[in-house]
Design brief:
The structure holds two protein chains of two kinds.
Chain A (H helix, E strand, L loop, with lengths): L4 H9 L17 E7 L3 H14 L4 E4 L15 E2 L9 H12 L1 H5 L10 E5 L2 H16 L5 E4 H7 L14 E5 L3 E2 L2 H14 L3 E3 L4 E7 L2 E7 L2 E10 L5 H6 L8 E12 L7 E3 L6 E4 L4 E12 L7 H14 L8 E11 L6 E4 L5 E5 L9 H14 L13 H4 L17
Parallel strand pairs in A: 1-2, 1-11, 2-8, 4-13, 11-18
Antiparallel strand pairs in A: 3-7, 4-6, 5-6, 9-10, 10-11, 12-15, 12-16, 13-14, 14-15, 17-18
Helix pairs in contact in A: 2-7, 2-10, 3-10
Chain B lengths: L1 E4 L3 E4 L4 E5 L12 H8 L8 E7 L7 E7 L5 E6 H8 L1
Antiparallel strand pairs in B: 1-2, 3-4, 4-5, 5-6
The chains are: A alpha/beta, B alpha+beta.
Chain lengths: 417, 90
């Protein structure tokens, strides 16, 4: 089923009875060439690019719940390429280029909206840091514009420019940044993979990984044993549990990150805006809800919910920056499980087990990486070679100390990112 | 979430700094080798369930605490002074 304007018109005039399910619900086969553990954004895009770029279609995605039920449906939907370090910079730049062609590629409306991101700064030191970051972005071929105070006011007249404690000095404007509809990204990749022959197996929890003589042979699942030549682990916050099935310990600690949404309001916030003096960032969804979040709760958690101190901090920071949102009623809050690495950067690599690969450690920045992560992980699983845009995301960098990707410059240690 | 400090009593989570897994109490010898230090600094069991952690009562008495906590429910099962844990091992 192909989507088009004509099709929407035709279905609208004939009672919308011609729409069909977006993907099949197949029974597991006893054997596949490739198994992807995890039917989230990264797993689905991996399956899609295995089929599209490498012609590998005897592939199954194993999802313990339902497609789109994990972090891909629990984030704040921001898409950007404003990274600083070589190793990260080219990867996120590649991802943004994939985003820009994604809807045509998938024939699916993911509501990618390049509304621009403005990172505010509030001191001379912060300004210098953003100048440096902006130059790194421009050197990478992406876009960055330094706004002074009046430049920010032209875009964001509703900020509290009179605040004496946190004065707004300016902002780094990234016009190609923006948001996308997170669920649609999962659905679009799922549909695209399914159309190319990939089996999406839902309610199929992996309970064991079969390894013989250092080579992966397949997995045990709640829907029976499945054999495979190659297996990829792409399970975000649950990475440590699945890796343990293969006898691995990972440099990961799972934390909770909260996000919030208000009741639907008329359009008032046109960009993605981040506060530089507190943990707060915000955008407005197409439904009108203000979607905002802050930093981690800063303790290990699998609870998918956080505690009040962080919620309070985020609200206070929001009220400090833009008092106009004070009367909006909070509708929902939720928490996602973040697979935090010591340096805050991800891992896309082989493991010591032949045929077993891992894509994890996305910390709190996995959503924007969905296209490029799947692209690079599919390349690695199909060819055995690291993709050039993701060659720095090595699993052993913590042990060797070589190639640490500490974007924030705070140190490579758990609890610092 | 509240933690019951053995010295100060039940206090709000805001008073405490989370250090991480209680593995920090098991510092290897300087010459223990790369793998032992990788295990200590980077690699984690990261369990979904009961876990031993190191917290610092930074806005209270300043004691380091070993907290037994469930990461799926946030239930706190026990808090002991890290010093007492370390001394019991000697």
């Amino acid at each position: 089923m192909k989507f088009s304007g004509l099709r929407v018109l035709k279905e609208g005039l004939t009672g919308n009875v011609g729409w069909t399910p977006h993907w099949r619900d197949p029974e597991p086969k006893p054997e596949y060439d490739v198994l992807i553990i995890g039917g989230g954004g990264h797993g689905l895009s991996t399956a899609y690019y295995l089929a599209k770029n490498h012609g590998m279609t005897n592939v199954a995605v194993l999802e313990k719940g339902y497609i789109g039920g994990g972090n891909i449906g629990r984030n704040t939907t921001i898409v950007r390429a404003n990274y600083f370090l070589p190793g990260n910079s080219e990867f996120y730049s590649h991802s943004l280029k994939l985003w820009e062609g994604l809807e045509e590629d998938l024939n699916y409306n993911v509501m990618h909206s390049q509304r621009g991101i403005i990172n505010l700064f509030h001191s001379d030191g912060q300004r210098d840091a953003f100048v440096r970051r902006g130059n790194a972005m421009v050197n990478q071929g992406d876009d960055a514009i330094l706004l002074d105070r009046e430049g920010v006011r032209a875009h964001l007249p509703y900020l509290d420019f009179e605040n004496t404690r946190f004065p707004i000095y300016g902002g780094l404007y990234h016009p190609r940044g923006g948001t996308a509809r997170h669920d649609a990204v999962a659905w679009g990749y799922a549909r695209g993979a399914d159309m190319r022959g990939v089996d999406l197996l839902q309610n199929c929890e992996v309970t064991g990984i079969d390894i013989e003589n250092g080579t992966v042979r397949g997995v045990q699942t709640t829907r029976g044993a499945i054999r495979a030549k190659k297996v990829g682990i792409v399970v975000a916050g649950r990475s440590s549990q699945v890796a343990a099935m293969a006898g691995m310990r990972l440099p990961i600690e799972s934390h909770v990150l909260q996000a919030f949404v208000t009741e639907g309001l008329k359009p008032c916030i046109d960009h993605v805006v981040t506060f530089g003096m507190g943990h707060f960032y915000i955008s407005q969804s197409d439904k009108g809800g203000l979607v905002f979040g802050g930093d981690l709760d800063f303790y290990a958690s699998y609870a998918s919910r956080g505690n009040l101190p962080t919620a309070e901090h985020v609200m206070e920071a929001g009220m400090t920056l833009m008092p106009m949102i004070g009367k909006a009623k909070l509708l929902r809050s939720w928490g996602g499980i973040m697979d935090m690495t010591p340096d805050g950067s991800p891992i896309i690599d082989k493991t010591d087990t032949e045929g077993l690969f891992i894509d994890c450690g996305w910390c709190y920045g996995g959503f924007k990486a969905v296209p490029a992560s799947g692209y690079a992980f599919a390349h690695l699983m199909a060819t055995g070679q690291l993709h050039e845009t993701a060659a720095a995301f090595r699993l052993d960098r913590f042990r060797t100390g070589r190639g640490i990707l500490d974007e924030e410059g705070t140190g490579s240690q758990h609890n610092l990112h | 979430m509240r933690l019951t400090c053995p010295i100060c009593g039940a206090r709000d989570r805001r008073e405490f700094y989370y250090q991480g897994d209680a593995v920090a109490l098991d510092r290897p010898a300087p010459g223990a080798g790369v793998q032992a230090w990788d295990d200590y600094v980077h690699l984690r069991d990261n369990p979904a369930g009961p876990r031993r952690e190191l917290w610092h009562h930074e806005a209270g008495c300043g004691a380091w605490l070993v907290v037994e906590r469930n990461t799926t429910t946030h239930e706190v099962h026990g808090v002991t002074l890290a010093m007492a844990v370390a001394e019991a091992r000697r």
